[in-house]
Design brief:
Elements: H1 3-19, H2 22-36, H3 41-45, H4 49-61, H5 64-68, H6 81-97, H7 104-115, H8 123-131, H9 138-146, H10 150-153
Helix pairs in contact: 2-7, 6-8
């Protein structure tokens, strides 16, 4: 890939991130801090006791990231599927249950960065499974499930290109 193509892809990622609602952008940055160990997410993101508890729980749930990275199951086999999808489904259910990600696009954007490009074929299934769980309010389930396009759900293949843009916390004064 030449430099112009790489720059174009990064700009596309920036535009996609900019299209998300402010609560989605904030949650993605917070989640990347938790999942990638970039910063003390509690110090940066906890505005109140409820958010403090949520971030602590997120640290616990995201422990599964270590197990999921680099062990993507074979798409043509059922071997290891229950462990892999169970962990992915649990993390997805937590994130969707926070009601900060409003659809598949923001979910995909986050998980591609948390787990890399190999996760892409598994995201529609995990998203659909978690979106249909009874832990989510019925109107929330409907909103989430309707956000998954037919093209995303039935894609014949996925890019192996790693994401290049990882949004971060910026101090208000620096912005």
């Amino acid at each position: 890939m030449n430099m112009h193509d790489a720059q174009s892809l990064t700009i596309a990622e920036l535009r996609e991130f900019a299209s998300f609602a402010p609560c989605e952008q904030r949650y993605i940055k917070r989640s990347l801090d938790v999942g990638l160990g970039r910063a003390d997410a509690i110090r940066l993101w906890a505005r109140d006791a409820e958010e403090l508890c949520s971030i602590r729980l997120q640290y616990d749930v995201y422990q599964d990231l270590r197990r999921l990275r680099g062990i993507t199951p074979d798409e043509m086999s059922l071997d290891g599927l229950e462990d892999y999808m169970g962990r992915l489904l649990r993390m997805t259910a937590f994130d969707l249950g926070q009601e900060r990600l409003n659809g598949f696009s923001s979910y995909r954007f986050l998980y591609e960065r948390l787990l890399g490009p190999d996760i892409r074929p598994w995201l529609p299934a995990a998203f659909c499974g978690a979106s249909a769980l009874p832990q989510l309010r019925p109107e929330r389930r409907k909103l989430l499930l309707q956000s998954l396009s037919e093209a995303a759900a039935t894609a014949p293949g996925w890019s192996a290109r790693a994401p290049s843009f990882y949004p971060e916390f910026v101090e208000a004064e620096a912005a």
